[in-house]
Amino acid sequence: MRFSHQRQKVREIVYKTNSHPTADWVFTEAKKSIPNISLGTVYRNLKQLEKSGYIKTIYDGNIARYDWKTEPHNHLKCKNCGDLIDIVFLDESIHPKIKKDFKFNVDKVEMFIIGTCKKHAKHS
Amino acid sequence: MRFSHQRQKVREIVYKTNSHPTADWVFTEAKKSIPNISLGTVYRNLKQLEKSGYIKTIYDGNIARYDWKTEPHNHLKCKNCGDLIDIVFLDESIHPKIKKDFKFNVDKVEMFIIGTCKKHAKHS
DNA sequence: ATAATAATAGGAATGATTACTATTTATTTT
DNA sequence: AAAATAAATAGTAATCATTCCTATTATTAT
Ligand SMILES: [Mn+2]
Ligand SMILES: [Mn+2]
Ligand SMILES: [Zn+2]
Ligand SMILES: [Zn+2]
Fold it and tell me: Does 3.30.160.100 match the CATH number of domain A74-115?
């Protein structure tokens, strides 16, 4: 894998935020320093970076978002503002149970915990 | 909500399968008895049925699938054949913990357990 | 049956993502 | 260093799922 200017920038943008950005947001950011970068290049690089293990893809409803944090973790999703908040919640204990009950071999668990984040709490 | 022929059929199709079908599959099935039904009608009715609480929408990667089973449950997703298998796994115990740690109010937990289903087991 | 209104078919529009291609950029070979 | 090889790019067209639009039709209430 070559390290083009564009690829470095896409990677850097994803690595610099905790917002789990969309391809379009990465595109907008990238244009600030590479004005004629194309959206296709952003998508191609996001995919390549995922394949090489640099980033992960998260499907939020029907749109893809990207995450620099590749270790297993889950997300709180605020239905009010759409924010995704990282949460580490490892419970490998379900794996053997699922294996036994369903003869299903577990690779990973993807969990979205949906609710309302603290930004919207009404203070009394 | 009126009960058009089309709406009844869409509902019936979703209720008759455990395959968590896509809109397109429902459309194909519906055409068998209502040849000139339109895809827009299928989508409109799936949405309406969800709003009325008859069915649920599941996002599988970036495509929507529909589920007649509206009680909270989760899914095993086979990365080999794409099947979604229902699994009841309720652990409300995480709710208070998340509330405390993140001041995040949990509505529901959406979990995809990804792995390989028994259809692909190599028998020795 | 009439009037009021909800739903439909069919097609256009949208939004996200991928595919295509001629050109540019980087790496390897002479 | 020049030529050959390979990878990546910009720009654009195409695809796919989904939603929107509108004139017409079906359902329901009076
Ligand atoms: Mn994350
Ligand atoms: Mn289900
Ligand atoms: Zn929020
Ligand atoms: Zn399978």
Answer: no
